[in-house]
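HUMAN: Now follow C-alpha cell order:
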Amino acid sequence: MTELDIAEVARRAGVPASTLRFYEEKGLISSTGRRGLRRQYDPGVLERLALIALGRTAGFSLDEIAHMLDPHGQPRIDRRMLAAKADELDDRIRELSALRDSLRHAASCPAPSHLECPTFRRLLDAAASGGVTAPGRRIPGR
C-alpha cells in the first residue's frame, strides 16, 4: 500500500487533521514526509492511531500512551499499568453504580420532598464531602 496523506488518515481514523498534527507534536505518530503541503503517513499509522484511541477510551493520558508505544509504533505495554487502570475503572464503576441507584431511587421516591428522603440525603452528604464526582474528575486523596 502506498503512503496516505493527512486527509485520508484523518478520514479513516475518524479524527480531525488537527489531532494528527497534535499527536505528531507529542511524538505519538510521525509523518514520512510531505507531498506539497500535505503530510504523508505510512499506512501503519492507522494501527497506531487505533492503539491511541483504545488507550484514550480506557482513560490513559497521552503521556501514558506515549510510554506504551515504541518509536516504531509497536506496543510495549506495562501489564502492571493495565492492572492499575482496571482497578481504577472498577472503583469508578462502583461509584457510578451507587450514584445511578441513588438517582433511580430519587426519581421514584414517595417522600413528599427529596430533602425528606434518607437515601437522597445520603447522596447529598456524599456530594458535600467530595465522595461524588463528575465523570473524569478525580476524588482528592484517592
The helical segments are 6-13, 17-25, 45-58, 62-67, 79-108, 118-128. The two ends are 48 Å apart (CA to CA).
